[in-house]
Amino acid sequence: MALNFSSIASTILGLFGRVASLLVLCNLAFEAIAAPYQAPGTKRMAERLQKITEQSNPRNNLYMNRERADLFGQELKQLLATPDSPDKGAKVLDLDSRYATELLLCGKSWEAIQEFTMLDAFIKTSPVQFGTQTRSSLRHYLAIAYLRLGEQENCLSNHTIDSCLMPIQAAGIHKIQRGSRKAVEFLIEQLNEFPDDLKARWLLNLAYMTLGEYPDKVPSKWLIPPKVFQSDYPLPRFYDVAGNLGLDLNSLSGGVIVEDFDGDGNLDIMISSLGVRDQLRYFRNNGDGTFTDRTEEAGLIGETGGLNILQTDYNNDGWPDVLVLRGAWFGVEGHYPLSLLRNNGNGTFDDVTEEAGLLRICWKRNDTRRHQPLRTLPQQRRRHFYRVRGGGRFGRDRIHQSGCQWRLQQRRLAGHLCLKPRSAQDVVSQRRSAEREQVSERRLEIH
């Protein structure tokens, strides 16, 4: 019997095609199941925040320290490669000090110490007579850099329940002491030249605490007496238990909300950070004294930054929502949008900033309605008042502000703060409007 190889080959190819298609479908289904939840609005906001950060100029943003250190370091290399000139030394000193400062601020303490040490040697050997303020400032930076190194090697790498709690004692005393030892040297040198330097005196006492030698070994003329740290009434010592709970995050200053987000009767925690790349974190209370990081499961990946965060139920569905405020202290680079995060009641949040029609605004509780109105951030030049219009959207009311003073508008928005700067034209226009309203009221009374 003759075999039809063409038919067999076609059948085999068909089977392989079906298997391949099935594998593709299974893979897609697996990815759909495995992929963390993220709402479309959250994804767009994450992309927007990333784009803004990438396009930001670190020269203008004092909190992009890692980027600023890279920038000044590159400029310093270029400057050192240029031919000598009468003002080159002053330029190198200025740029190197900025570079060292940014290294310190971005957490590269040892690299900062090396740069400050070279600057110190340059000042001491240079034929140029530098002022006492320059030497004083440099000593302060060196002392702070060494204290920061000690903090990183102890309070961060070997954190305990006593770390960084004043007065420092017991398990808070540093085991690796090279940082504080060198800081003491620079602070004593500073106080010998400037005995009334209160900042140096405070840091000296602090450094001796981290060494476990306070108050006994602190020079008596600079000792801050232990009674200064005593309470006026009995007060128990509070211990840092964040490490045992998985809540010891390392980031910049930010906001914290302690709220029952999932309605189980236990207080959950949401934490933000000023850092433009720092992830907003959501910790669910397990009800047994522990917390679980549910940031990814909550659909919050990509929601970064935020000096302040606030909660309220903006849509009156019984679930606390969150407002994330961004851009404060960033100067001209502070054009970051806020985020309105709607609590879906199932452990997830959706960024509905666009859907709600909001720009950079913040919560303001100042009427007795069930829906909470909003007002714009204080650091914005133009400010407006937003009131919930229903359907999860906000509308803007026209209200005014007189100079730097807060005032109350008597009509329609009684009790609401006025947030828009007034120009001279606004004042005249408002007076004319008030006069017309008074005339209309008199006419009503006459009729």
What secondary-structure arrangement, pairings included, does this model have?
Blueprint: H1 5-34, H2 40-55, H3 65-80, H4 88-105, H5 109-125, H6 132-156, H7 178-193, H8 198-210, H9 242-245, E1 256-259, E2 268-271, E3 281-285, E4 291-293, E5 308-312, E6 321-325, E7 339-343, E8 349-351, H10 353-356, E9 361-363, E10 374-376, E11 385-390, E12 393-397, H11 424-446
Helix pairs in contact: 3-4, 4-5, 5-6, 6-7, 7-8
What does this structure look like?
- This protein is an alpha+beta fold and 447 residues long.
- Helix content is 41%, strand content 11%.
- The chain is built from eleven helices and twelve strands.
- The chain has a four-stranded antiparallel sheet, with no helix packed on it.
- Strand 3 (281-285) and strand 4 (291-293) form a beta hairpin.
- Helix 5 runs antiparallel to helix 6 and helix 6 runs antiparallel to helix 7.
